[in-house]
Amino acid sequence: MHPLQTPAWEEFRKNTGGDTSRIDGFLITWHRIPFTPFKVGYLPKSELPTLPEIRNIEKAARQKNALLVRLEPDATRTESKNWLRSYGEILRLGRTLFTPQTFYLYLDKSEEELLAAMHPKARYNIRLAQKKGVIIEEDNSETAFKRYLELTFGETTRRQRFYAHTETYHRHMWAAMHGAKIAHLFTAKYQGKILVTWILFKQDGRLFFPYGASSEEHRDVQAPSLMLWETARWGKQQGCLIYDLWGAEEGKGFNRFKEQFGPQLIDLVGTWDLVINPLIYPFYRLAEEIRWIILRAIK
Fold first, then answer.
1. Is 145 found in the same domain as 262?
2. Measured distance CA(182)–CA(265) in Å, rounded
3. Virtual CA dihedral for 248, 145, 203, 117, nearest 10 degrees?
4. Dihedral angle at the C-alpha atoms of 191, 246, 200, 134, nearest 10 degrees?
5. The whole model's pTM is what?
6. Which pLDDT tens digit goes with each residue over 137-154?
7. Are residues 124 and 193 in the same domain?
8. CA 269, CA 78: separation in Å to the nearest integer?
9. Is residue 209 located within the same domain as residue 119?
10. Are 298 and 108 a contacting pair, CB within 8 Å?
11. For residue 85, with 0-12 CB atoms within 10 Å meaning exposed, 13-18 middle and 19 or more buried, which class applies?
12. How far apart are CA 271 and CA 73, in angstroms?
């Protein structure tokens, strides 16, 4: 089960005022469209639903007065060929929330094999960080979490120009997911100061990298490179076979950083809309595209 389908994630969404449902075991969140009586359903990172399950989801969506349910299954495009062939006609390609590609770093290899598969620059940066005395450790304390928030809202979102969830969102997420022993906070320290913080999810033999923040200070010591390497080693020790680096997007700085470590680029099944109200749906999609054009223009 993906972390976003766990009871802990459901608890987190409820604690932030979210409207959730379990339909045939699938966790769906419902989101009101501002200034309208309609909602949108979101089913992230689930197994591929069968036709009877899709029909049950459709029934629940009608009861919620939803225009659509957006599905982003936790499946590769290869795994989904038959599913798309069977149900592609009743689904429409939707606007992506998760990126349609991700990186998998396969951990069922020796450390020597993992290092050999890396770009020479990645190996150099790991050794440099070690030589400089950067320390990577799991630190789930309130002090470390406060530093994570400080870096997230003080530096990372401003520098990389992306939209972050609120501090309340992160606090509730951490309380629920760490309480369920899914979320783990790692820090990279240099000269006693935390420069990098990553929150990782560990679930069912996989390690995930959903959240990270870093400081502009001492970038020359290459703390993020050692962080990725040491968390990969930790994942191996925990019995994880895959380190999902949570998204790949051509041209982005984080993409260039991740690909240095020799992961495999994975094509996911993508985003598919189960349309409940076909008359209003086109207007919603148009408004959705206009909204993002405006957000990009003012960012």
1. yes
2. 25
3. 40
4. -20
5. 0.91
6. 999 999 999 999 999 988
7. yes
8. 8
9. yes
10. no
11. exposed
12. 8
Q: Count of domains in the chain?
A: 2
Asked whether residue 296 carries a pLDDT value surpassing 90, the answer given is: no
Same domain, residue pair 20 and 86: yes
Residues 257, 294, single domain; the answer is no
CATH number of the domain residue 133 falls in = 3.40.630.30
Range of the domain at 198: 102-266
Q: What's the pLDDT tens digit per position in 97-123?
A: 899 999 999 999 999 999 999 999 999
| pLDDT tens digits, 28-82 | 999 999 999 999 999 999 999 999 999 999 999 999 999 999 999 999 999 999 9
Mean pLDDT of the chain: 93
Rounded Cα distance between 271 and 80, Å, is 12
Asked whether residue 157 falls in the same domain as residue 212, the answer is yes
| Secondary structure (DSSP) of the chain | --GGGSHHHHHHHHHTT-EEEEETTEEEEEEEPTTSS-EEEEEES-PPPPHHHHHHHHHHHHHTTEEEEEEE-S-BTTTTHHHHHHHGGG-EE---SS-SEEEEEE-SS-HHHHHHTS-HHHHHHHHHHHHHT-EEEE--SHHHHHHHHHHIIIIIHHHHT-----HHHHHHHHHHHHHTT-EEEEEEEETTEEEEEEEEEEETTEEEEEEEEE-STTGGG-HHHHHHHHHHHHHHHTT-SEEE-S---TT-HHHHHHHTT-PEEEEB---EEEES-TTTHHHHHHHHHHHHHHHHHH-
Same domain (yes/no): 222, 280: no
Of 295, 266, 277, the closest CA to residue 98 belongs to: 266
